[in-house]
Task: structure prediction
Amino acid sequence: MDFIINLIVLLIAAKVLGELCERINFPSLLGYIIAGVIAGPMVLNITAAEEIHIFAQLGIILLLFITGFTQGDIQQLLQNKKAIALVSFLGFILPYIGVMVVGLLAGFDFNTLLFFALVFSATDSGITLKSLASTGRMASRAGRVILGVTVADGVVGLIIFTAIMTYLSIGGIDVFPMVNVLVSVGIFLVFFVIMQRAVPWLVDRLDSLTVEEAHFSFAFIFMILLALVAEHFGLDGIVGAFLAGVILSRSQIGRTEFIQKLSSASYAIFIPLFFVWTGLLLNLEYLTLLSFVMVAVALIANAIGAYAAGRLCSMPDEDSILMAITLLPRGDINLVIATIGLTMVNIHGESIVPPELGQLIYSSAMLLILVAAVATPIMLRLLIKKKEAV
Result:
């Protein structure tokens, strides 16, 4: 019962603070995050992140599914493949190098630096897509590139993560784990192509059913299953959820009111709880000045990389700035990487990361998530106001 009460309190707080933010012309997601910070260990400590983690996970899956359903035109995304590849590459490598340099100056050993930089460089799409939607630019070229980057990062991030963690485990690069990753990604993409043909046919067969909301139930189950399949092949579940939306949008379900019904439930409950969960993660107990420096370096380098990639691809200055801001957010993938790295040992049975640095890395990752989540909607609002004033 306490859990239900906490959930109700969090939803009310999120909606109230979200409304206040909307009234002062900031996105509601900022209010959701603030609600989480207030309810979390740093202020009132009335609930813990793990209590709503499952709701948060479902929220991000639904957000990516809805985005794939409404905006996931693969052909349009492929038209911007050069820009997507360049933004994804520079958005990862520049923060990685920046954090490595700061860590070297702080005296960290090389292996710890490889891991620390990986935690700071991985990207997340939940806050990015919600922030982008708030600007009304989802269908623009910049919006398409940003959407493509969120999907590409899921694949590229898996390959880079495997390479770095393999090196840290055995002291070198082993081609077999890399081949396994590439084969797994290839199999999943083949599965996606097969599903593109099979699912619309299967949806048509549902017309003969008389049970209520058969299409809705099938779509929800398919979304979860494809997210699970993606995770089985080593990808983030959100990649599977996005592609599930792409597939179903081409079926008969795309011509019904299904997506309106699902969006209503998602934005009423699950998606706000994802952002509340982001705020609940904050705990500054183990932070040092170095944490703040690394967060600043990682975010500035990420913004420079996205902006430079946009300009190199002949995108307008405004679109390049939009990408630089919108692609700042990080999320639970950073904490997942931190958790995996803190428990891994090398072939000699030694911890990859010294235990005394474990809490520092984890707390720094939480700070990174919160700062990016709060800064992104604020900077987007300032960008919009500047545009309106011109």
